[in-house]
Amino acid sequence: MPNGTEAMTTTTSTTTAASAAGRGQAAKGAPRLAALGALAVLIAAVPLVLPNNYAYDIAVMAGFNAILCVGLNLLIGYAGQISLGHAGFFGLGAYASAILTTRYGWPPIAALLAGAAGVGLLAFLVARPILRLKGHYLAMATLGIGIIISIVLNTESWLTGGPDGLMTENFSIAGLTLKGEKAWYWLVGALLLAAVWLANNLIDSPIGRALRAVHGSEVGAGVLGVDTSRYKVMVFVISAVFASVAGSLFCHYAGMVTPAKAGFFKSIELVTMVVFGGMASTIGAVFGAVSLTVLPQLLTAFEEYEAIILGGIMMGTMIFMPKGLVPTLAGLLKRGAK
Fold first, then answer.
1. How far apart are CA 270 and CA 66, in angstroms?
2. Which candidate, 68, 79, 64, places its Cα nearest to that of 236?
3. How far apart are CA 121 and CA 237, in angstroms?
4. How high is the pLDDT of residue 18?
């Protein structure tokens, strides 16, 4: 039996280890908290330089894309699982809200929640079989899901309106109707902050550590006791729900929804935004989405050279910043500070 001194020493060592672990976790979370604060300041300051409603519209669309990319980055950047059909979940969320509010008179919030639940259930059902695949096989499987969703939305015109899409109702909360680009800017900005906060909390939790382990080595994570299948399915469902919520809100903002928003090119655009901004970086996903939403608008002045210049910018970024925009710039700033 240990004497009093030994017991006291053991207790002190345990307390010291726990304190060190707590300080380590706080140190890891501090940069993310600072980045979230900086993002909040930026969202509050942007309206000072937006000249008209068209600029507000671009900002709102950038916000929707950013919310989508925050969820997709959890899947691609942290869990290492590719998805080329993510726009399908965005489209399903949009159509769920459009159909339930216009045809069945549901309140927009109830329709949004029902759409998110339905999309989450669908993602859960398809995740287990397809996430057993790896590499380009997984990419093809997720691409197939997106194509199936797009075909259904185009062909089932009795429900979806076919290629012409559906008109939607205004979004209202507790009897207050949201109208105008400025009002939508603040709502989307607040939801983007909430999405980043939720993603960061997930990343700093045991779930986030399990996802990084799966990304690093799925075999190694399994050997250490991580239920890799469970965590891959979980993050797939979470990312799909992010997309569904963004889609539900988008359909009310745009006033209509068409199958094009669930198409292959939209999925490729989302993956490009995540990679451009920096995988495994929540703020990187945000700035990747914002950059590739705003850049095409700024390059319209170059007319027929717009696509060439945009392609050159993206290619140059990937050559000289292979980790993505935000992680590379953050690394340069750290080296400069030293």
1. 9
2. 79
3. 8
4. 36
Q: Which residue has the tokens 């809200």?
A: 97
- 82 with 235: CB under 8 angstroms? no
> Tokens 């590739």 sit at which residue?
292
Distance CA 148, CA 41 (A): 41
Q: Which residues of the chain have pLDDT under 50?
A: 1-2, 4-26
From residue 316, alpha-carbon distances to 205, 225, 271, 276 in Å are: 35, 41, 17, 11
For the chain, where are the alpha helices, taking DSSP H only?
4-45, 53-73, 86-102, 108-130, 135-155, 157-160, 181-203, 206-216, 218-223, 228-254, 264-277, 282-298, 306-320, 325-337
Calpha distance 114→155 (Å, rounded)? 23
Q: Which residues pair with 177 in a beta bridge?
A: 172
Residue-wise pLDDT tens digits, 222-232? 888 899 999 99
Give the DSSP letter string of 174-189.
TTEEE-SHHHHHHHHH
Phi-psi region of 3 (alpha: psi -120 to 50; beta: other; left: phi over 0): beta
Residue 221 to residue 180: CA distance in whole angstroms: 49
First-to-last C-alpha distance (Å) of the chain: 50
Residue 43: CB partners within 8 Å, gap ≥ 6? 189, 192, 193
- Give residue-wise pLDDT tens across range 227-283: 999 999 999 999 999 999 999 999 999 999 999 989 999 999 999 999 999 998 999
Contact of 244 with 115, CB cutoff 8 Å = yes
Cβ atoms of 299 and 310 within 8 Å: the answer is: yes
pTM: 0.89
Structural domains of the chain sorted by starting position, each given as residue range(s) with its CATH number in brackets: 53-337 (1.10.3470)
Specify the pLDDT at position 4: 47
Classify burial at 198, counting beta carbons within 10 Å of its beta carbon; exposed 0-12, middle 13-18, buried 19 or more.
Answer: middle
